[in-house]
Amino acid sequence: MIAATPAPSASRIRLVKLLLDHLVWFILAVILLICSLSIEHFFQVGIFINIAQHATYVGLLSLGLAFCVIAGHMDLSIESVMAFAAMLAAGLTAARGSPFAFQVNTWVSLLLVLGFGALAGLFNAILIVKFRLNAFVVTLAAYIAIRGLGLILTGGRSIYGLPQDFRAVANTDLLGLPMLVWITIVTYLAFGQILKGSLFGRRVYLVGGNPVAPFRAGINVERVLFGVFILSGVIAAFAGWLLAARTNGATPNLGIGMLFEAFAAVVIGGVSLRGGIGQLSGVFAGVLLLSTIDTAINVMGLDASYMQVIRGGLMLIAVLLDGVKTEIAKRLG
Fold first, then answer.
1. CA-wise closest residue to 322 among 284, 266, 280, 281
2. Residue 312 above 60 pLDDT?
3. Averaged over 251-264, what is the pLDDT?
4. 291 neighbors 54 (Cβ within 8 angstroms)
5. What is the Cα–Cα distance from 120 to 145, expressed in whole angstroms?
6. Residue 96 DSSP symbol
7. What angle do helix axes 23-38 and 280-300 make, rounded to 10 degrees?
8. Would you say 210 and 224 are in contact if contact means Cβ atoms under 8 Å apart?
9. What would the mean pLDDT of 289-295 be, rounded to a whole number?
10. Is residue 90 within 8 Å of residue 98, measured between CB atoms?
């Protein structure tokens, strides 16, 4: 008689699930170790700070996108929202190239930029939630249209010459780290707590996992989705404001390609495209992983095209791992 295979213990199941949930951190550690041992001048504090700072804007875009994907939807407009927000902020405060006949205070510009991001998210949400239009199509149309609005606003010209207090946000260090890095870390910690520890966050997971069940349980699914898209727009606009501070202005083609980096970071970070699964800690690790590889390519002096191939490969691997992780989770129960 063949003996039955013993069921895995509860502690073993928890350990396997923990490893699966944080696999991207292990991959990041391995990549950092390989780069440090094989690339000359890579293992130094300045390089690591550069990796973290480079991750700021893509990191913020990825954060908002992660909320949408976990809720079972997609927001392709974030890159254009970020770029337009940067141009709006620069136009409201810059000394040269501004399309406006007036200037406002740096912090007033931040409020106006965040307001624009909220309106962009609200516009997407109305079409997707109220009119039942496909999120991919709606946000892709918004991506194209908002880019066009940026060209109309600036006439295709660059805006530059921001006030000192505006530029200081991106050029100030605190405890040895750039302020941008601290802003990114604090933002991830705050929204990570919201996603995992608040009622809104739990409902985001429920809606993404099965939008019918929360509705039957009395949860206002539409309100949750409105909140997710507005949040995505606001965070993208905030990233644009910080990007303007870093570049001392804005150009119409600012940030092109960051959408794909953000999408790659979200997928690599373990957020399931089926919705309802994912953690912001994994997304942050995914952003750092891409930034590490990008920095390593620059240090080695390789062509930037290599990064495109690597991003695509990592996304495919991440999607495959998502399927494997889901199958393992089903078996473990």
1. 266
2. yes
3. 90
4. yes
5. 11
6. B
7. 20
8. no
9. 92
10. yes
- Rounded-to-integer distance, Cα 133 and Cα 121, Å: 14
In 102-261, beta strands by DSSP E? 159-160, 173-174, 177-178, 249-250
Encoding tokens for residue 228?
A: 């997710």
Question: In this predicted structure, what is the pLDDT of residue 217?
Answer: 78
Indicate whether 9 pLDDT > 80. Answer: no
Cβ within 8 Å of residue 282, ≥6 positions away: 21, 22, 24, 25, 269, 270, 271
List CB contacts of 205: < 8 A, sequence separation 6 or more. 70, 195, 276, 277
221-247: pLDDT as tens digits: 999 999 999 999 999 999 999 999 999
List the beta bridge partners of residue 250.
159
Closest CA to 164 of 86, 252, 95: 95
pTM of the entire structure?
0.92
Give the DSSP per-residue string, 55-89. HHHHHHHHHHHHHHHHTT---TTHHHHHHHHHHHH
pLDDT of residue 310: 81
Residues 86, 255 contacting (CB under 8 angstroms): yes
